[in-house]
């Protein structure tokens, strides 16, 4: 939040299903609401990668500002049906809440990988299917697979920028394009992806890594410390610095 305040930038705070279980749905909503009131910034709480219709609906009902339904591991038809059910449910209650769907196979996990993440041609999003998916589901945001992956791979990712352009060209103009797995992608590729049409980029592993490394450093240097706010201070600062770095890269400054 301090980084967003400094750069006057809108931000999205994503919670995975595991994080939602740990923090609590209502507790997360209350915390983000307090930040909105204090900072006066557009902050969107998003249930990242909801892998079931029920999970997505529960997040919306708890008060999340946005909904991400990810049924990309299901067959195309079932993915459409589930995403449409979520979009219809949310829009019947509040037209202003943005709904995201996902198509394509995003490999990897949200950690530093010890191996190369092998992406197959069939993993990538097909533009024609993306257009059909968006039209039939009524989603507001579309997440695809363009060579991106979760976590940080041993090798350097190679985004298919032309595929991003092709999807942007065929998608309805009302639908924003999302890039998941933003960690570890070279800055030059991120800039090209934005030019090609990406409007929302998710970064998790780089932020988690900054937090964990700073926390471990403090505990190594201060093994006798037991006060939580003192232990966490360096980690919080590391996260702020990483978020500032990404907001600058994404051209989010003064974008309210």
SS summary, helix count: 10
What's the total number of strands? 9
CATH class of the largest domain: Alpha Beta
Strand/helix succession = HEHHEHEHEEHEEHEHEHH
The pLDDT mean sits at 94
Instruction: Identify the overall geometry.
Output: globular
CATH superfamily of the largest domain: Aldolase class I
How far apart the termini lie comes to 14 Å
Please bin the fraction of helical residues.
40-55%
Biggest sheet details: 5 strands, parallel
Count structural domains.
2
* CA-based gyration radius: 18 Å
Lateral strand order in the biggest sheet: 3-4-6-8-9
Spans of at least 5 consecutive residues whose pLDDT stays below 50 are: none
The name CATH uses for the topology of the largest domain is TIM Barrel
Strand content: 15-25%
Structural class: alpha/beta
In words, what does this structure look like?
The chain has 256 residues and is an alpha/beta fold. It folds into two domains: 2-204, Aldolase class I (TIM Barrel), CATH 3.20.20; 205-256. It is 49% helix and 16% strand. It contains ten helices and nine strands. The protein has helices at 2-7, 17-23, 25-39, 53-62, 76-93, 127-137, 161-170, 187-196, 205-221, 228-249, and strands spanning 11-15, 43-47, 66-69, 98-103, 108-112, 141-144, 150-152, 176-179, 198-201. It has a five-stranded parallel β-sheet. Helix 4 (53-62) packs parallel to helix 5 (76-93), helix 6 (127-137) packs parallel to helix 7 (161-170) and helix 7 packs parallel to helix 8. The longest helix is centred in the last third of the chain and has 22 residues, at 228-249. It is globular and about 60 Å long. The two termini are 14 Å apart. The mean pLDDT is 94.
């Amino acid at each position: 939040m301090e980084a967003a305040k400094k750069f006057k930038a809108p931000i999205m705070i994503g919670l995975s299903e595991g994080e939602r279980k740990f923090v609590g749905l209502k507790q997360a909503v209350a915390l983000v609401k307090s930040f909105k009131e204090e900072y006066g910034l557009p902050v969107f709480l998003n249930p990242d990668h909801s892998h079931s219709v029920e999970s997505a609906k529960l997040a919306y009902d708890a008060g999340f500002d946005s909904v991400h339904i990810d049924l990309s591991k299901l067959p195309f038809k079932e993915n459409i049906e589930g995403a449409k059910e979520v979009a219809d449910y949310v829009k019947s209650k509040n037209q202003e809440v943005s709904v995201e769907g996902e198509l394509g196979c995003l490999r990897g996990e949200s950690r530093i990988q010890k191996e190369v993440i092998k992406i197959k041609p069939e993993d990538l999003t097909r533009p024609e299917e993306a257009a059909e998916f968006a039209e039939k589901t009524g989603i507001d945001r579309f997440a695809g697979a363009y060579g991106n992956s979760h976590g940080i791979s041993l090798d350097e990712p190679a985004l298919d920028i032309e595929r991003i352009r092709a999807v942007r060209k065929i998608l309805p103009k009302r639908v924003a394009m999302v890039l998941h797995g933003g960690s570890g992608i070279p800055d030059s590729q991120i800039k090209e992806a934005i030019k090609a049409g990406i409007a929302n980029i998710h970064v998790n592993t780089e932020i988690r890594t900054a937090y964990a490394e700073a926390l471990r450093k403090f505990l190594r240097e201060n093994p006798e410390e037991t006060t939580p706010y003192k232990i966490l201070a360096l980690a919080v600062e590391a996260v702020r610095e990483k978020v500032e770095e990404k907001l600058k890269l994404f051209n989010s400054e003064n974008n309210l």
